[in-house]
UniProtKB/TrEMBL annotation:
Residues 19-41 are annotated as: Disordered. Gene3D superfamilies: 3.40.50.2300. Its main location: other. This is Sugar ABC transporter substrate-binding protein. Belongs to the bacterial solute-binding protein 2 family. It comes from Streptomyces ruber. Keywords: Signal. It is found in: Cell envelope.
Amino acid sequence: MLFGTAAVGAGVVLAGCTSNEPSDEPAANDQPAASDDKPGKEVTIGYAGPQADHGWLNAVNVQAKNRAAKYEDVTFEVTEGSNDTATQIGQIETLINKKVDVLVVLPADGKALTQVGLKAMRAGIPVVNLDRVFNSPQAYRSYVGGDNYGMGLNAGHYIGEKLKDKENARVVELAGLDNLELTRQRTQGFDDALKNYPNIQKVARQAADFTVESGQAKMAQLLQAQSSFDALWNHDDDQGVGALRAIEQAGRDDFLMVGGAGALAAMQAIEADDGVLKATVLYPPTMAASAIDVARALGQGKGISGLAEFEVPSSLTLYSAVVDKENVGQYMSTGFK
């Protein structure tokens, strides 16, 4: 799905340039590509991922491992996931010393790990920077990640369309960790979307910690402070489990809720349609599988099938689709526990 739109676009361009005149130019499909299953050059991919202390983070690690296992030509050197920057730096330096062909890194802290990314690149090891971006583009060859701003933007537009005919509509926001840039981006996207709906006002915002416990506690505070509102945008489906507990305990069902990330439990609740949760905005953990595809292509010195370029793109940003009752069946298989 990541490359599907680009593939269609490339096909349209090629069709428009076709003529009956012979050409000395090579056909686009003659160029090397590495996103197929055919075995090619042996590639050792070093993977430094996060500690799996959250549903989405665990799903990222699982996606990476499963994707690497799919390829006969890939040897997967995986470190024990860590959220400690010093530990992760040491793990990456070990992979550098092992002279892996490519590194895939989801840094605990992009800023703190920039130097070790630079060290790998200077050692001739291409780095695929996953999700949390390094401070310098020189620290990675390719970036693969989600669209945090787009996540908030799409949540805002979904809520806006649901409430566009309601006078003096009121919405609240249950954000994630405020010290993370991604949280600020999600809030900014949401606020920018709401500017298109002058009848809607955001009346409260509470930051949680991406955990079930924090979601429950912070949602209880929101419910106590706001006796009436029409919609809730919750940044994360894990903390959303706690938020839903607080909502149930308060006996509230007078608003709609939009979640974030795409947890299986959230999708099942959306499908059942027997509560306030009506949609979730994806932040696909499949980005880790795509990062393995990119790393394999880099290690084999090939491009991506479906794209006209010989080189792997320097950046790939996934789309944050809105999943509601109308399309949840299409996305259910991507839901993570």
